[in-house]
Amino acid sequence: MSFLWSLSASEIAGRVRSRALSAEEVTRAHLDRIAAVEPKVDAFLHIFPDRALATAREVDKALAAGRSDLPLAGVPVAVKDVLDIDGIPTTCGSRMLEGYRPPFTATAVKRLEAAGAVPLGKTNMDEFAMGSSTENSAYKKTRNPWDPTRVPGGSSGGSAAAVAARMTPIALGTDTGGSIRQPAALCGVVGLKPTYGRVSRYGLVAFASSLDQIGPFSRTTEDAALVASALFGADPSDATSARRGAPDFAQDLACGAAGLRVGVPWTFLEKGVDAGVMDSFRSALAELERLGAHVVDVTLPHAHHAIATYYIVATAEASSNLARYDGVRYGLRTPGNHDLRHMYGESRDQGFGAEVKRRIILGTFVLSSGYYDAYYLQAQKVRTLIRRDFDAAFATCDAVATPTTPGTAFRLGEKTDDPLQMYLADIFTVPANLAGIPGLSIPCGFSGGLPVGLQLLGRPFDEASLLRLGHAFERATPHHEALPPSLGD
Amino acid sequence: MAKVTTDTVDHVARLAHVSLTPEERTMFARQLDDILAYAESIQSLDTASVPPMSHAGTDEAFREDVAGDSLDRGRALAAAPDPADRLFRVPRALGG
């Protein structure tokens, strides 16, 4: 393929830096690609061509003036609509924030722009990042590029679908319980959830503050490493951002998979995994062994409690974070209410969709008098047990491997009436958020024509081992190169 | 343990300042009951000697307590549904 939209971020940045391509022509090629395939996918909520082209021209100007230090020179990026860009609408997929334009830019976006990246648009998502299918968006349903009757996963479904459909080589998402890794798996792309604290959350609309983390989507692990190096680092505007510099992961990639120990928690995988997903997973483990990694058994005795723990901790934090939507400082206010209490209640009734209300009610319940100890406090203690399981596992391995999801992309509407079934689809991703550890999902095969993801979890701040394994795996396998059949141009 | 009724949902909705339709009350009572029944599995774990974990932060630090730039007042008020001069205006909070 010779189309500019088929290039990886690394290829684009190299050619733009050497002036073989201009950032402007790369941007135009991707805007044209969006115009051609977006009607079939509906990945975006806002596209801003004028701003993108202006940013691209600035990059070209900087390069012409002698700048050589732009690792993402001219690389288009799509941004999940939960991250603020000054003056551009942020909706979070919610009617509550329709028309809201933030007065600041998220640190994550600023860092990518400072590295030469060109934001193209904001992507669709489950309302306030609550969901696993992007069907909870108040605005549109995003379709899986591999099968338009199926979901792209969620909550960062728009970002995953945009990368899979070659509308952008990279995108930003957020992962509170799997919202980067799960849609990456379902759309056949790479998704990295960094260690808690790696990426500043300044300018990210909060869902569950002890779990939320920003990370990249890409089509190769090499590109994920490139974006991570630009994205990571301390930020005085976020007190929870770790006081560490950003490593240069490119050097780690060259080390290969040899000698790394990959632990498999077989007992945790016993139930509920589709046969086709398990086949791909076992083939991926065999491939990693061929590449010199050692596959060992590990146990995560409390991991099957992760969903219950997560839906208590996350909803408790959400019910508190979402108290700010009160119709006073920003967001929807329903007119005609004569007292404050009614104004709050009516604005929140009309502004929030069903899943957000369900989680606010659940979170308020588990924090309420008489239930706090039995639910919230107990969940926080089980969270400690889950973290200890990982600490013990990492004494004998360098990465824990699981399928990213128990099944492939499900049909639109298939799980919308049964929230518990939707939550259970996150079983393999939520433990990492509770423990605060990094996770990578990479394409590892297909089942029934739909992508399957391999999840690799690592020690805190050891994204490097995950990227080494992912990169070595990709160099030996073709799965990440496959193009969704209906979008071949 | 918890049997969620529509009365429970009403009570919690009041605490959370969310108005609900009658259909939502019934639906949420049923769904929350399902979810909490599932979540009860963690209550059998012995955690008497386990400390709670509120977050996974490892090395965050406090900054020096010095004043910095903050958002310009006009920009902070720009997104408000009903700004009034330097203030956010709201409906009556007391009485009525």
Radius of gyration of chain B: 22 Å
Structural class of chain B: mainly alpha
Write down how many β-strands of chain B occur, each being a DSSP E stretch of 2 or more residues.
2
Which residues of chain A form runs of ≥5 with pLDDT under 50?
none
The protein's oligomeric status is: heterodimer
Helix content percent band of chain B: 25-40%
- Overall average residue pLDDT of chain A: 96
Radius of gyration of chain A: 21 Å
Tell me, rounded to a whole number, the average pLDDT of chain B: 89
Strands of the biggest beta sheet of chain A: in what spatial order?
1-3-2-4-6-5-10-11-9-7-8
Kindly estimate the percentage of residues of chain A that lie in beta strands according to DSSP. 5-15%
Q: Cα distance, first to last residue of chain B?
A: 39 Å
The portion of residues forming beta strands of chain B comes to under 5%
Lateral strand order in the biggest sheet of chain B: 1-2
**Helicity range of chain A:** 25-40%
The helix tally of chain B amounts to 3
What features would you describe in this structure?
The complex is a heterodimer of chains A (489) and B (96). By secondary structure, chain A is α/β, with parallel strands linked by helices. Chain A is 39% helix and 12% strand. Chain A is built from 16 helices and eleven strands. In chain A, β2 (76-80), α4 and β3 form a beta-alpha-beta unit. Chain A is globular and about 65 Å long. Chain A starts with 8 loop residues before the first helix and ends in a 13-residue tail after the last helix. Chain B is mainly alpha-helical and 96 residues long. The model of chain B has no long low-confidence stretch (mean pLDDT 89).
